[in-house]
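Subject: Sanity check before I submit

Could someone independently write out the structure tokens for this chain? I want to compare against mine line by line before I put it in a report. The sequence has 512 residues.
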Amino acid sequence: MDISVIEISLVEPITCSRLVPSDGRGALIGIIDSGFDLTHPSFLDARGRTRILAAWDQVNLGGSAGAPPLAFGYGVEYTGATIDEHVAAQSVVIVRNHEGAGAHGTYVAGIAAGSGAPHGVYKGVAPGADLILVTYRNDVPVGGSAYVLDAIDYIRKHARASGRPVVINLSQGDNLGSHDGMSLLERAIDYVIEEGRVLVVVSAGNERGGPASHHAQGKVEQGRELALSFALSAGPGRVVDGDTIELWYGGSDRFAVALHAPDGNRSDFIKPDGIDVVLEFPAGNRAHVRSQSGHPTNGDNRIGIVLERGEGWGTGLWQLILRGDKVEHGDFDAWADRPNAVTVIDFRSHQSDASTITLPGNSRRAITVGGFISRPSLCKDNREVRGDFASGSSTGPTRDGRVKPDVTAPSTLVMAPRTRRDGHPICYDLMSGTSMAAPHVTGVVALLWSLWPELEAGQIRDALLSTAKNDAFTGITPNTNWGQGKLDARAAYEALSILVEKEKRRCQQRES
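---
Independent answer below. Compare away.
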């Protein structure tokens, strides 16, 4: 954090003075994630009291006896007073949404608003801001998740009760959806941002150039078959378990689909009639296939293939066979993922690093954040260059042709607080990924709203994007790697200062 705040022009590198005159006090940050250390010293104020106004654990994995929030009938809520009691008792309270979850939420919250305790070296962007945290239930695809919608609603209710605007950070996402901003969650995000008192910041994802390809793109021709190849990279501890392929194509086309196994078994073709078909293979493994035309979210056609949990899935090359029964355009995109884990599906043909922004990052009004290298690795043969685009950061365009991400921020080897264990000292860890880039933007939004809480969400969003930095790495912007460029906190502050001053003068002129 001591490096990344310089990279976003928040701190002057020689004097270490802050270039935005605020620590975020009075601002409100909501974070939807998992793995929160609710009692971490980095989230306490100068008096030793928590800055977490409320925390909702939707899953309640630990079986806490607490009650759920009044407006919701599940999970457990931790009030600020309850957290303070745990702090006073020197107990560690960690909430996560599944057994294997790590410290992700604590890292994200620490980057956005951590105090850097106990030494203050790795201080977050807005260390004076208040927090509302939600550990969301993540066993369903994010794009259609009612649990994430509830999380947003929960944060908004607290913001309205306090009379403050709120910036919500969502450093979570998956590939399941149409990638055109039309998912249930993305449309809801657009709606709440349009109201003017909420801004949502989303990580772009880390789907570009990885060891496995989770996006394929191609064109089917009339009356011909196209074979989309994929492998199942299962291994020790990595079995097929609900891994999913979603293929989307234009509403005027009609494809039939079949599945071809490595042993030569090939299913019958399934037409887009919306009927669920179960395919069973010799080893007893089953795949659920649904091909539907005129999907209700956008009118396009969708083929969904879900592989049931099992250990007997054949290694080797699988093929998804697409037959063009009626083709006007023929273009398709296919994405692979599974909720709550990294998919074992690896496309071996028609791979594409374009259009890899994860949901809900294709939202029209959210600020979607890609990553750049703020701290290169010191490993031998490392080719990372400070300031360059981060190797894994997802890129646009969206499936409907819009530029995403919107902006980029530091994402490589960012030092942030981790969850603790009883009796162990406070520790900070290096983390990488666009999950770390998004809370830099979230923290800057909090700084700006702490100075001018009367501003609309759109005004802050426009200021951040219009003042983003260009350099030799970004090239001409906007583009589908960098969006508008690199986050520049000082420039955004100065642009809004001018805007607010102009508005004051207009008001004075009207009054006179």
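---
OP: Matches mine. For the report I'm noting this point. The first strand starts at residue 28 and ends at 33.
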